User: Fold this.
Amino acid sequence: MNKYLNIALPKGRLGEKIYDTFEKAGYGCPSIRENSRKLIFESEETGVRYFWVKPSDVAIYVERGAADIGVAGKDILLEYEPDVYELLDLKEGVCRMAVAGKKDFRDDTGKTLRVATKFTNITEKYYLGKGRDIDVIKLNGSIELAPVLGLSDVIVDIVETGTTLRENDLAVIEEIVPISARLIANKANYKFKSDETDALVRALGKIVGERT
Ligand code: PRP
Assistant:
């Protein structure tokens, strides 16, 4: 495994865009473009081996060293706080973590606020910082349903275009933090692959620097 720089990419639309960036930066791996169910691709020419990984699992592969490098959303990094280096903002998958609720929502500070979310750690820290008492309701998807059906008062979720909120008569109440895809690295592996990793960061940095 050691000869190659092992890179975990998030499987899906975002991952394909991220791969395009790596290719532009000189880290192409032509076989990855072939339609197949394979999950591992390597290029002897550029010295990289790519893995398609479920987006929320990328940080686990990198933290445990099964991948040297990976691309993970800042939402995942804030939620799970993996012990990895964060090397570069790739400026893809740009969105924000926000509190949202019904358009007429008014916070009654005399009551515990019921918050539905996938991101319980981010939510607890955010409201702890505000000194607001909350009851976190952990959901796994379709979070927007919760305030509509009265399961929660508000939600903490990712907002990209705002379409999901709009189409369910919800609105952003507060923004928590901007989110985008980040290049991360395993701390121990970085020690003996620092030259290769730094070269990759420089090459990607040039491409990303052209984005605003
Ligand atoms: C995310 C998020 C919102 C939606 C926001 O869901 O949870 O539901 O995208 O995007 P928009 O502002 O452009 O409408 P995702 O599609 O990642 O799936 P999920 O339901 O599993 O969270």
User: Anything to note?
Assistant: The longest strand covers residues 170-179. The mean pLDDT is 96. The helical segments are 13-24, 58-63, 74-80, 120-130, 145-149, 163-167, 187-192, 194-209. The CA atoms of residues 28 and 110 lie 57 Å apart.
